[in-house]
Amino acid sequence: MAAALSTRTTRLFAVTASGVLVAALAACGGSGSGGSGDGDTITIGYSAGISGGAAEYGLNVQNGLQMAIDQLNDEGVEVDGKKYTVKLESLDDQYQPGTTGTNAQRLVQKDGAVVVFVPHAGGIKAAQELNSGRSEFLIGAYSSDPAIVESDNPLTVMIPPSFTSYIQPFIEHVDTKGKGKLGLLATSSEFGQEWTTHMTKAWKDAGGTVQANNNINYGTVSDFAGPVAKTLSGKPDVIMVGGPSQPTALIIEEARKQGFDGSFMILDQAKYEEMEEFTDPDNLDNSVGIAPLTEFDGTEKFIADYQKKFDSKKPVNADIALNYQALPIFIKAMELSGSVDDPKAIREAMAEAVEEVDPKYQVAFAPNRITDSGHLVADDLKAAQRTEDGTYESFEIEQPKE
């Protein structure tokens, strides 16, 4: 076990180091050619934690965007009769919302981005305070927090399914079905706090009890023994856990070490296929979370293409796929609106763009419509229960009507 832990620690260090390198390259303009003064360039901004505890998550989203951009450039992008090259400009915010706001301003004002992708709720909300004022820009919001679209920000497009889609099905698929004691050990980020608020209400409505909130900062805390012990002292039947995949896996591992044999409900930010890389997969048994990408039909080619492009044997998950298939919708909206620099016109064309985007960019639960509030919605969403024998049993999820 010690050897396995050493391997995981070494890999986590390597991921963090690679994130620092990517951030440095991005700050120097290394993420793409050309500058904001190049009229033939469409700059897509990206602000995320690409170093630190959330590095692998941030890099997954970045790679999904880059893969789509490279494919679009290979095919050629033309807007209003003019040919463009799309480039990705990435800045590291270390998962800090205040830094996200600063990054968004730089990406828009200095680098000329009309779309900025942000993959965490706090950062998205910080960007929303800026994008309808002096600088107008579209936000590609990669977070499942429903407050993102409830804010009525007209220039925000929410990419993943709302986490409220998962709450009732998760309750129904754990052993106690909401009747037992629920322990809280999720990430303390704004996303985790929103999950906790919604799940607490739903669990109580189902007839169960909710214990003290022991949520922790997954990005800065590295010794999980104390928070886990504190949670287990209440003898929970089910524990809600989740944040970036690596620390989530290690928290689950610590809980199993300390004798917890109940169920886990895993927030949608953590992905099974990644967690299996950071802990003995048996630790994940008797849990419920979002379905691995391999549980969706027709994903084999995308997974193989991604691993070949990035020379990677790492598992390919929904973070990669959803951003890969979202970015071409923004570019299609530019083509349909005839503008690369009018965020309102581009947003107005999104509904038509969702219907007209090339199907080859559709991987899994690809959106087929966008709501008035700016949420991309798909119909074939799945979650999965990992059983006691280590197999995944998928079940369908219905997204709330908006």
Please give a structural write-up:
- This protein is of the alpha/beta class.
- The protein has two domains: 2-161 and 299-380, Response regulator (Rossmann fold, 3-Layer(aba) Sandwich); 164-291 and 382-397, Response regulator (Rossmann fold), CATH 3.40.50.2300.
- The protein is 41% helix and 18% strand.
- The chain has helices spanning 2-27, 55-75, 97-109, 121-128, 147-150, 164-173, 190-205, 225-232, 245-257, 272-275, 300-309, 318-337, 343-348, 350-356, and strands at residues 41-48, 77-79, 82-92, 115-118, 138-141, 156-158, 181-186, 209-213, 238-242, 263-266, 287-290, 369-370, 376-377, 381-386, 392-397.
- The strands form three sheets. Strands 8-7-9-10-11-14-15 form a seven-stranded mixed sheet, with helices on both faces. A six-stranded mixed sheet has the order 2-3-1-4-5-6, sandwiched between helices.
- β5 (138-141), α5 (147-150) and β6 (156-158) form a beta-alpha-beta unit.
- Mean pLDDT is 90; it is low at 1-38.
